[in-house]
Amino acid sequence: MLKKSMVKITSEILFSVALCLVLLLVPGGFSFAGDHDVTDQVNVYSGLAPALQLTCDDISFGSWTVPRGLRANGATKIELVVPANTHLPSRVAQAVLTSLGVTPGNSPLANIIEPELSQCQLTGSSLTEGTEVTLVLKDNLLISLSVAPVLELTAAKTVAIDMKANLSTHETIALIDDNGSALWIITGDLNIPDGLDPDNYGGFSSSGSGATAVYTLN
């Protein structure tokens, strides 16, 4: 009788163990190390740009060799004009000087850096090809310069009094082309005062205080 009971108890234990093993093997019964939920983030990017844009190049009066002290012909005005027979668009400039004694750079201090005109280009217009449009310059007269390292020159120590620039459009009116664009050429003049001292030699820039170009529809 005791032996039969032990067999029964042993059978129940084995059945219980087998049942536990079955529960361990079915999903949810127990979690082993393995695949699990992971996350990542999907970001959104976009960009908006105006359809109509006006982009202008800077104008450069180039580098010049100027005698120190008083000059026989006094102050010099360097005027940049569009050369004759130039096929636009072009930034090639012809420099016209009002007095002698100032020559293109080619000294121990300055290499020859040719002057360049400015171009202002309108893009993205929806106007009909051939439509006249106008460019107006504001704050374009008596532009002050500041010392700056430009045109392969180190910055001058001081700016000579009355060293000012004036800018103007070669032609105020332009025509919209078949790509919705229009182009203007910006010319100008620069006054180089008389009586320069050693601190006045070096580079100069308008440093963000130049003229403002404004596009308007005729």
Structural commentary:
The structure is a single chain. The chain is mainly beta and 218 residues long. The chain has one domain. It is 11% helix and 29% strand. The protein has 1 helix and 14 strands. It has one helix spanning 2-25, and strands at residues 53-56, 64-65, 76-81, 94-97, 103-104, 118-123, 132-138, 143-144, 146-147, 164-169, 173-175, 182-192, 204-205, 212-217. The strands form 4 sheets. Strands 1, 3, 4, 6, 8, 10 and 12 form a 7-stranded antiparallel β-sheet that branches. The protein has a 3-stranded antiparallel β-sheet with strand order 11-7-14, with no helix packed on it. The longest helix is centred in the N-terminal third of the chain and has 24 residues, at 2-25. It starts with a helix and ends with a strand.
Features:
218 residues; 14 strands; three-stranded antiparallel β-sheet; seven-stranded antiparallel β-sheet; mainly beta
Short characterization:
With 218 residues, the chain is mainly beta. The chain has one helix at 2-25, and strands at residues 53-56, 64-65, 76-81, 94-97, 103-104, 118-123, 132-138, 143-144, 146-147, 164-169, 173-175, 182-192, 204-205, 212-217.
User: Helix share of residues?
Assistant: 10-25%
Mean pLDDT: 82
Task: Calculate Rg over CA atoms.
Answer: 39 Å
How many strands, which pairing sense, and closed or not: the largest β-sheet?
7 strands, antiparallel
